[in-house]
Design a protein that fits this description.
heterodimer; A: 140 residues; alpha+beta; 30% strand; B: alpha/beta; 42% helix
Chain lengths: 140, 101
C-alpha cells in the first residue's frame, strides 16, 4: 500500500495561512484528486490554521503551528496543532455561527466549513496547552 | 489579492481578484469601504469571477458589509462567483440573503 508522510512547522502568522494550505494541497496531488477535492482540503486547512492564529495564540506572533499529514489508502489524514490557550467548550465552538469575537467580522463558520468540506473532524484541546484538529478526506 | 472598483450610475462594481482569507480581510474591507464612501450608490455588485479562494474570513467580511449596507438601504449582489468559492457561499447560506445577478 502506498503511504506518504509529511510534517510542517511554522510561525503563527496570517501570512503563513496561504503557505500552509498550498503545501497540504500540493502534498495530495500525488493521488490525482479532483480540483474540487483539493479546494475542499485547502479551505479546511485555512480554517484550522486561522483558528490557531486568531484563537489559540490570540494574534500574538510568537506561536508555532504544526501540521502532520499522512496519505494511506488514497485517504488524507491531517493534524493541525497549536500550543496556545485551548478551547473552553468544544461542543459550543463546533456550533454553526458560534464566535467568541462578534466585534471582528468573524462568521463563526470555521468548524462548520471543516466539517462539511472534509469526511471527518476531531478536536482535542487542553486549556493552556493547546488544540489539535484532526481531519480526514478521501482523495479518490 | 487585488480589489478594483468602478461606478456606473447608481451601481458600484467591486472586483475581487486572488485569494481572500484572514490575512487580507482587513485590507479588502478598507478598500471596499473607501469605494462606497466615494459615491452615492444604491447597489453594490461584488464580482467574484477571479476570486479563486475564499474561506470563512471572506464570509465574515461579506456578512459585515451586508449589515452595514442594509442600514443605508444599499443592496448587495454577487456576480459570477467562481466554482472554487461557490461551495463556501452555499455552506454559509449567504445566497439566501445576497442574490446572484
Amino acid at each position: 500500500m502506498f503511504v506518504n508522510n509529511m510534517s510542517l512547522k511554522f510561525d503563527a502568522r496570517p501570512q503563513n495561512e496561504s503557505f500552509a494550505r498550498s503545501v497540504v494541497g500540493a502534498f495530495c496531488v500525488c493521488c490525482n484528486p479532483t480540483v474540487d477535492v483539493i479546494n475542499d482540503i485547502k479551505t479546511a486547512i485555512s480554517e484550522a490554521v486561522t483558528n490557531c492564529i486568531v484563537h489559540g495564540y490570540e494574534n500574538q506572533k510568537n506561536g508555532e503551528i504544526l501540521i502532520e499529514a499522512t496519505i494511506a489508502d488514497n485517504t488524507l489524514k491531517v493534524k493541525i496543532s497549536d500550543y496556545g490557550k485551548g478551547i473552553v467548550n468544544i461542543p459550543q465552538a463546533l456550533e454553526d455561527f458560534y464566535t467568541t469575537r462578534e466585534d471582528e467580522d468573524r462568521s463563526g463558520l470555521g468548524f462548520t466549513i471543516m466539517k462539511s468540506f472534509m469526511d471527518s473532524l476531531e478536536v482535542e484541546s487542553s486549556l493552556g496547552c493547546g488544540t489539535t484538529v484532526t481531519m480526514t478526506k478521501r482523495l479518490l | 489579492m487585488l480589489v478594483n472598483s468602478e461606478i456606473v450610475g447608481d451601481n458600484l462594481y467591486i472586483f475581487l481578484n486572488g485569494e481572500l482569507d484572514h490575512s487580507v480581510a482587513e485590507i479588502v474591507k478598507k478598500e471596499m469601504d473607501k469605494s462606497i464612501s466615494q459615491a452615492n450608490v444604491k447597489n453594490v455588485i461584488l464580482n467574484l469571477r477571479y476570486l479563486n479562494f475564499m474561506d470563512s474570513a471572506g464570509i465574515g467580511l461579506i456578512m459585515s458589509c451586508y449589515k452595514k449596507f442594509k442600514k443605508y438601504s444599499i443592496k448587495l449582489f454577487f456576480d459570477q462567483p467562481s466554482s472554487a468559492i461557490d461551495k463556501v457561499l452555499k455552506v454559509s447560506g449567504l445566497y439566501s440573503i445576497i442574490p446572484v445577478i
